[in-house]
Structure formats: structure tokens, C-alpha cells
Amino acid sequence: VVVETLKAVGINAQLADVHAVAGGALKPADVKCLVWVYGNTFPREAAGAIEEFHRHGGCIVATGVPFTHPCTPVERGGRVFWRDEGHEDFGGHDRIGIGRVGGFVPGHSARLAPVPGAPFELTPMRYGMPVQSYSVPAGVGGFFFLGTADLPREDQVSGVIGVEDGGRPLGFPVAILRHGCERFRGAVDVWAGTQWLCDPRDPAEVLLARQLILRSVVYALEASASLAPQEARAVRARVADWCRRHVLPQRRLLKYSGKPRPRLLPASPTLSPNASVTVHPVTADPQDVRTALACLQGHVNRREPRLYLEYTEHDAKWLAWYRERGYVGQIERIENADEDVARFRTEVAGAVISEERFVNIATMLASVVGGIACTPELAARWSLPVIADLRGRWRTDAQAYRWAFDRLWPQMSHQVLCCGHPRRSPQQTDYLVAHRIFTFFVSGATDAADEGKDPVEETLLAEKLLAATEPNSAVLGWWGWGDPPEGIGEYWGMTLASRYAKVTIGTEFMTNMSFHSAVPGPKRLRQELLPREPRLPLDRTKVYVAAAVLDSGNDPWYWLRPQRDVWEAPGRGQTPLGWIIGPALHDLAPGIAEWYYRHLTPRDELICALSGLGYMNIPDYATAFTNRDALLRDYLAMTRQYMERLDLRTLQTYHGSWGEPSDYERKGDLALFARCLPGLVARLPDVGRHNATTYDIANYLLPGYGGRSRVPVFHCLTRWIPWYYTTDLLDRQDDAEI
Description:
Blueprint: H1 2-8, H2 18-22, E1 33-36, E2 41-43, H3 47-55, E3 59-63, E4 69-76, E5 79-84, E6 101-106, E7 110-114, E8 142-146, E9 156-165, E10 168-178, E11 188-192, H4 203-223, H5 229-246, E12 277-281, H6 287-303, E13 307-310, H7 313-325, E14 331-333, H8 337-343, E15 350-353, H9 359-369, E16 371-373, H10 376-381, E17 386-389, H11 397-408, E18 416-419, H12 429-434, E19 438-440, H13 455-468, E20 473-477, H14 490-499, E21 502-506, H15 513-516, E22 548-549, H16 556-560, H17 562-567, E23 577-581, H18 584-588, H19 590-598, E24 604-608, H20 628-645, E25 650-652, H21 667-676, E26 682-684, E27 699-703, E28 710-714, H22 733-737
Helix pairs in contact: 4-5, 4-13, 9-11, 11-13
């Protein structure tokens, strides 16, 4: 993306392989400026070559806190990963020479400030949002700025963006470094500290980061005499034109005028115990066949639940439970996919064909026109007429999703969305087809180099979708996929949805939702063995410890698969434990929820998570609306309904990552939850111990429902080691196993 953006304004740019850089590709006669966009990390093997390039007058434009985390390549399983070796500052004058870190300002107290007479200025990329209005996104921490202590007197530092703490200027997170010293004479560097421009939820920030790189490169080339003044003026004019073409409109707040709905997620028609159910194991079927069968299942079960696909052994277990309860009568197993299609051929009109990368578009169109998303070979094999052939229509994912929004949105559900990678397993596709759910995916910043990926355009479309869908509704699926991960990611995606009053429901591995949601389980469930009154009086000479599993159980798919294994483990029930459960399970699989309630022990308690109806970040929730308070009250009214249906008395909520401003500074939202939920006996406002939590402030009381009671708040005092992806686990196998 950076290369293409530089080319668009007339700068000759090309990608350089890391090994080529280490091998001498940075020849000063050919290369005038190295643009390093990897933030803190860099390959250790290339450090010497970068330093040598710099010593010959080559310019460097670097983002983040440059050259502070050396990495080395490691090959595993035929793939090369880069291992971060930890902090080691190579920026000093005795090394690469771009400057060391001068200091750090915490995000909650830092403010960006203009610099009078700055070498260049940045153009706002969203109307009504000045450059200085940006702040460090939650979870990043704060601003780093360039240090000058170890720079020679001959080197000159000029600020482009300043940072203040409590009104006191401290330094420049964006700065120019002009070398007059003997070691790097003639080099002009830009410390483009983009840690304040790394929030992928705001496309304007991404565009501003690109503009910063453009203007930095132009300045470095002109100041080092690598770009003639006349040519530099022409390039700056093209940069200005680029900014005008990409500037985004001012954000407009939405207005909520709805009311609480009776349920969060739709269900299929109620399953009849007299219906004959066809069961097909898909374990031996390839991905394209599974996708086609999932589409078929959605159409069949939309009218009457009669088709059940077995992906894992758990699917067979749940079907056996339904038979035991009398929810399912006659079952016929079919081992061959061709027989499935032949049996239900009258349920579908034909085939929708697309490239694999556009399978989300194909399944959405199929849900509307009564088709099956499949390959040309499967269409021929099953004698399906081709309703639509989408191949070759779009160059980018954003173009495809925009086409789908323009053409299909009026016929799709406006009560629920799904975020899902097109190459994911089609396990949830049956439900998406049955209820005509718009399915999209948002690429992350690191995906931008992949063909057809445009994170800015995809995020803009996601915002449009989220705004067009009813508030207090759900986004199914998941915000990331794969390892190394693709997509905007869990935190950024979930908080983006939160802004538009949407909860995230993890259904990526949920199977047969169009069938499970039709099972006529109990409308209300009760934790029969849960003590209704405290058993022991408080003894202030003792320390009381409570343990709970506070992650992932809010995702319904956990209860279909791994949680079943946990529930059947022989040791469960020996130690008192809390288990989080998401209310959405009662909508998507009421019969499965019933099984867990029937198998509770006296030492199990189910806890409502995460943040009520679903996974959302309370400080972000509904901030895109003018009347957020009214929307929050209705959200809590729906949460109350589900907690009463599921007999849940303890609530876990999410208030951001461990490093964000804690709920101690946001007790207004905490108090609102306590006041609006009758019968609440405890609040758990963390997913792991927050950085600000200390023993003396970990527990306190808040006014309860109607002000007639008090609700205790218990903060976590432990947390897990953060999970690292494969790239970071290469030398931690033993620890990981422990």
C-alpha cells in the first residue's frame, strides 16, 4: 500500500526484500530514502546494512518507535516466522542513528499540539477532526517522542507534531532529524511516530498515517537534495490532490428511536417430534461440498427443520440428547452428498458460482434467490441450473461487498449481521442462509498488501452496515481468522461494533444453528442447586477466594463443543467454580442450554457474560448515537429478560483491556448496570486483572435495583499469560505445554 501510494504521487518506489537489504541492496547511488513501516521491529541481520546506507547520506523515514526490537527469522514446518527478541534500541548515534526514545507520555494525560513553523503540516483526513484531536487508542498506552540527549550538536531536530502532558510540552512524536554530524552527514530522517495513528476502526487515521509517510518522504528527499525544488513542488501538489480525493465526510451521530425486542437472534420454525430428520456426516466431504450442503440446509430448515449435518462427534451427541428428550423422532442417515441434494432438490432453484474469495457474496445471493453457492463442477454434477455466475466481477473485496449492500441489503435481515472470513469452515452458513444474514469481513492493516484487500474501504462499508442495522442487535462470526491472523482483529472489531450498539456473538465454529434454534427447549431455565441465601456469616478474620472461568464461555460454540468435554470430566463439581455463559445460547440452541442446566452440580454457578446480551465494550457502546442513555436502558431491559430466563444472578462485564483507563474512573456505567438489573448478587467487571487493580480497591459496593439494595463488585486479582501466536511461541513450547 505504501509503495502504491508513493507511486500515485509520482515518487519512484519499490519493495525491498529483507534479505536483499542485508545483502547490499541499499546502494546510495540508487536508493535515496528507506521507508521503514514496521514500527519497532526490524531484522537484526539488516541492521548493519541500514546503518551503512545511513552513513552514506541515505535518508530514513520510520514509523512507531523505530529500530527498538530486533527480530530473527526461524523456519518451522516449511514457513518462516520472525521472532521478536525483545527491546534493544538500535536508534542511537552509535548504531543506525535515527535517534533514541526521549520519553513517554501516558495516553490518558497526553495531548497533541501544533508546532509553530513546522517543516510541513498534515491535512485533516476527516472533516471536522483536526490532526491534533487524535489520541492514542485504548490499549496502546501512550506517546513516545524523539530524544536528543545523545545527538551531536551538529544535528538539528525540528518538530512536526508536539506532545504535552498537562499543558507542559515534552517532545515531538513526529520530528525531522537533519544530520550535520560527520557520521551521518547529509542524511535527513523523519521520526514518524505513528503509534497515535494505529486505530483501524477509524479509516481517517489510516489515511492520515499514509499522508504522514507521503509528506515525510517528500520532505526528506527535497531537504537532502535528492529531489529538485521544482519537482518537489509538483509532488507536493499531487500529495495535496491525494488528500482532497481521500478526505472523509464528518461523522454524524445516529438517533435511536426503537424499543427493546423480545429476542436477540431469530430462530427456525419449531421442530416437530414427528418430523423425519435426514442426517449427513460431512467429515469426508471437501470444503466446496460442505459449503453447498450448508446452503441447502439453510433453505430446507428455513421452512421446516429436517436436515442435520455432523461435523464432529459433538453433533452426534446433541442429536442423541434430542432423541432422549423426545424433540426428534425418526432419523435417516445418508452418507452421500449427492443423495442429500437429490432428496431436497425441490427446495432450491439452482447454483450461484463465484471465486472462493467471494463465497460470502455467493451465499448471500443464494439466500435471496433460493440457490446453492457451489463450483461449476458441483452444479454440473447435481444438474443445477446456474442462476448467477459472479466470477470476474470484482477486483477488490470492498467492491464486492459494496455491490452486495447496494443490491441485496433490502432483502437481507436488518436485525443481525455476520463477520466471517470467506475461507472459514461453512459451519454457520446454514443459519446465515436460512435468515438471510449479511456476511462481510474487514481486512486488517497487515492484510493490505494482499491482492484485493483495502482495509480503509472495507471499514467504511462495515460502518455503513453497522449503522443500517437495528441497535442492540448482534454481529455473529468473528473479527479475525487464521494464524498468522487476518482481519481487523477481535478487539478492534468488537469495539467498532460496540460503537454502533452491536454485540459480538462468537459463532465461528457453531454447527447446525438452523436446526438447534428450532428445538423447543424450556422457555425458562433454573439453576436448581444454586444456594439462594449465603450459607455462612462473614468472618472478617478470614480471606475468601472465589474462582471463575471468565473467558470464551460467552461464545455459544464453546457450549456445543469443548464445554461438553469439560462438563463430562470426572473432576468437575469437586471445587466451586463459576462458568460464564452467553445469553445468546438460549436463542441459538435452547435444547443444548437445557442439557447443561440439567447437569449442574451444587458447586457450579453459571454467570452472565460478557457485558449482558453479548460481547461488547461498555465505554464504547452506543457512542455513535445522540441518545446513548436511552439505548443503554433498553439494552439493559433486554439483558434483564435473558438473565431472568436463564436464572443468572452474577454478571461479568468488559471495560476495555488491562491497560486502558479502568472502571474506577467510569463508575457511572457500572452503577447503571447495578441499578437496572433486579436480583443481581454480584458484578465481575474484568476479564483478568486490570493494571490499576490493587487489593485495597478490588472490592466495593454499588447501589442496587431501585436503590433498595447494594451490589458487591469483585475485581479479578489474577490473569493469564497473554496468548501468543505461533510466531512468538517458537521457543516457548515447554512453557506452553505447562
